[in-house]
Amino acid sequence: DPISIKDYYSFLAFFNDITPHSNNPLVDIGTPAQKQEHQIKVDHKKLAEEKLQDQIFKLEEELKATLLEPTNQTPDHSDTDLVDLTYRFYRDTWDQLPDDFDQLREETEGQIVSNRFTLRPASRNKSIGLVFEGKLRVPADDDYTFHINSIGGSRLWINGQKVTELVKAKGGYHQGTVALMAGYQPIRLEYFNQNADFPSLQVYWSLSGERGQRRHLSDATTILSNSRSTGQPWSYTFEPPTEDWIKLNFDDSEWETGIGGFGTHGTPGAVVRTVWSTPQIWLRKTFELDHIPTRVGLNLHHDEDVQVFINGTRVTNRRGYLTSYRTVDLKKSALKIGQNVIAVNCIQTGGGQYIDVGIVANPVVTDIDELLKQHTDQIEASPDLQVQVEQHQKLKKERDDSRKKKIPYSYMALAVQDVGTSQVHILERGNPRLQGDPVEPSFPTVLRHSASHLKLPLEEDQSKTKRRVVAEWIANPENPMTARVMVNRIWQHHFSRGIVRSSNDFGKFGTQATHSKLLDWLAHEFVSNQWRIKSLHKKIMMSNTYQMSAQVNEEALVVDPLNDLFWRFDIRRLTAEEIRDSVLSVSGNLNEKLGGPSVFPELPEEVLATSSQPTRVWGKSPLEEANRRSVYVKVKRSLLVPILNQFDMANTDSTCAVRFMTMVPTQSLTMLNGKFINQQAVAFAERIRQQGGSDLTDQIQFGLRLVLSRQPSIEEIAWATEFVETLAKKEQVDKKVALDRFALLALNLNEFIFLD
């Protein structure tokens, strides 16, 4: 019914101040059991990927050992103080560092070619343990101090003597001093991390009393932390600075100060603490050094192009972007003892953006793929190496393929939330700049009698549940409209038209109910049965009205030609989706799998040619998936599946209250000549041959029984058999082809696509 402008804006007020739920339109609506089941699957998948990574790392170390062997033949030629270093990796959860790792079962073990303590053998970050064993090269008899800085607990043993330990899960810095004799001494380091997102392990040693230079035993020691685990302060600007901004003595006091990393939320792998959304950013940070390490690397994550300067010297210039942090070995570091400055410029052109930089000492950067390329000739000459390389590639592919696959979880729903209580005004002539009188949330006058149980206007504590008030009004048993509309829809499903023909309009502009008392009674029964749709289906289908014959009564036809009084059952053609699904069912190809994403049945080239990108506009599903029920077929307004389009599928541009049934020649042509129908006819004929017996009459009877959903008559079997025999004898058609033609004919029978 027409409603007043005030009623319109009053009802609109219920839906004001709505935004996507928590910045995500999808929310989890699964039950605890469903969530637990999904999490178990996710955990199993993750564990399988971790075990693959365990194998990959071990195999990579073996390949490195073989390919790098000529350049590192004896321990004296190593640039580290550790030799023959091995590892054992454990996957478990502990509250503190275990007392005896030797009593526990390791997940995997192997060698560390770089001969440095490293967390790289761990295939995950949390709930891990590592035990390293090897030999320490001691240059002279003396007292030595060992320093350990770790996120996670650690314990150091040398020559069977415990030097230092920190067993708590948080970790931290600890040190110990021990007297050692010159030569190779057994060394053992134990480490664990409970639940830190970004574990770390740094180990170095020196003569006691800080005599001599520090010698690093781990693969990387932090000089300047990045902001992945703990945000680091930087000076920054979005405005182009002067040319000397990269130098130590530049005055950046007028720059802003912010916590790294800098970027936009949602950028892959980014930990954004200060938002940066402009085309460029310039960063500076000073730091102190008491010694210069042998090798230096940048721990870097950038999106997109980045330049990094140390003390005025450009040390790297990288284009493109990363999706995670990566260590980049520097050919030159430009570091000096005392105060240093790092300056960074990052440029963004599109998509996500992010920049964060740290500096590490003595990084171990050995790219396995680059190493394999460099030693191609050596690998081709060795069958054993070829087997190892092939196994490495196979494991990496299996891991990467698994990572790309998502565990399906269908218990998600589109959702929005109320975020405010702003005042709603009537907009004069619909112009948002011409605000009229204020209005409060309320229901249209014509429907207000059904909302008498609700307290309006809303109280202050209801302001954030406005839509809930509407939902409770709609689903309230005292609201007669909801039940009557639902009952009418279900009646329409069974009889092709509702008791109220205008399903979308129960007002004065719609048609009146042909049986208003029947509609009211069914609505009352529906609500009394706790809104159970199944009970309503049963009540309708068990009625005399539903079981009426479709035969015409001449006298009744004169009195009620439109069958408004339901004196007979109106013959109904199956809907487009029902026809397609019935064809697939009869042919034996219907995939009854439930849920999941949309599927893409094959489309003719002529249909695809109507698109500007014929090869990219439509997906390609495996045949088994493409044969799922039509409710799962992808609906694209500009590309429609021919058999669905021909048989009056719902309009894709607007809501469809009632399906209109047409009878046009192209429908018959589609059922005779369409590729889909002919393919399914061949499959149907093959099913007849396999399941219908060896005798032609038995095969015909079996096929007709499937199509007609009843036992065929003797006459029907006779004419169908005669049809096949005539094709075979008079038309000289192969028996197989003749049965294929019968299958196509059977799918075109009126009784197959009409319900009477």
Rg on CA atoms, Å: 38 Å
Counting helices, strands and paired strands, the structural category is alpha+beta
| Dominant shape | extended
Query: What's the total helix number?
Result: 20
| Oligomeric category | single chain
**Strand percent estimate:** 15-25%
Instruction: Estimate nothing, just give the exact number of structural domains.
Output: 5
Q: Can you walk me through this structure?
A:
This protein is of the alpha+beta class. The chain folds into five domains: 5-29 and 415-474, no CATH class; 72-219, Jelly Rolls (Sandwich), CATH 2.60.120; 224-363, Jelly Rolls; 480-559, no CATH class; 571-756, no CATH class. Helix content is 30%, strand content 23%. It is built from 20 helices and 30 strands. The strands form eight sheets. Strands 4-3-5-10-7-8 form a six-stranded antiparallel β-sheet, covered by helices on one side. Strands 13, 16, 17, 19, 22 and 24 form a six-stranded mixed β-sheet that branches. Strand 27 (424-427) and strand 28 (435-439) form a beta hairpin. Helix 11 (576-587) runs parallel beside helix 16, helix 17 packs parallel to helix 19 (735-747) and helix 18 packs across helix 19 (735-747). The two termini are 36 Å apart. The model is unreliable at 72-78 (pLDDT under 50).
Brief write-up:
With 756 residues, the protein is α+β, with helices and mostly antiparallel strands.
